[in-house]
Predict the 3D structure of the following.
Amino acid sequence: MKKLKWGIMGNASIAKRAFIPGVRESELCVVEAIASREESKAKMVAEQFGISKSFGSYEDLLEDPSIDAVYIPLPNHLHKEWTIKAAKAGKHILCEKPIALNVKEAEEMAEACAKAGVKLAEAFMYRHHPRYQMLKEIISSGEIGDIRVIRGAFTFNNSANMENIRFKREWGGGSIYDVGCYPINAARYLLEREPEAVTVHALLSPQHDYVDMMASGLVEFPESVALIFDCGMWAANRSFMEIVGTNGRIDLPSGFGTRPEPITNLFVTIGGERKEIEVPHVNHYAIQADNFARSVLHGEPLSFEPSDFISNMRVLEACIKSANERTRVVL
């Protein structure tokens, strides 16, 4: 069976903790190489995970003809540069979220990949887990009635780690980019519509280069439906989604599955009766990699086309503008 050969650009924690183990569980993928700006670090990770090749520069990885696709977990401000370079090298690209710093960058990346004839996808792995399709099926069944509001939260506390790249404003730091993007992206996915306006209030911390260390927001969707979200890097650990309808609600106690704890089941409450719905316990990083591989190897459509990440970036950009200017932003 032909497999998609991946090269990893950088030795980011997410690559070592999640992406590489996910690919190892996949059916259609293999990690062929890893690159770092320090060759010794790339070699160490390659030895740790049994990766056959390591490079001391990203350019060397892109020049390797055996590499079919690259995974980019670099800091946010480097996504555009290395996506475009990878596209020109003929590599397909899975780029970590958020895809870019703004809509303009996202559009330029999509255009460069279309011109080069390569696939480009944003690495929102949670959407590839079957439980989100199950969520959509429950919603479309009408079991909980018409959707009135969605609540989502994603917070953690690493505020003491002052060297963290998430605390560099010019690098695309801040909690909206890092974790607020999840409930926003999930609400768009579940509602299958785009927001009309956003209002966000944020803690812009002077000791963390004025990035939003905490943000709380209202995202207005058509038909008077709203997402109420909060996100933060200076708060207790939380990760959940709640979908509230006219007749009931759905709860996801672990909303996005980015941490080591197991992904939880769904809970549906109607008329005061709460039932648990079991979900498959599968690795959504592996599913994400295989879905991408099917598109590259077999010509299947991408699970989410570039128009989706451009639309998501438009909402994130509006949220950051609202937080900085303390105003409601109409989309």
The longest strand covers residues 234-245. The radius of gyration is 20 Å. The longest helix spans residues 306-325.
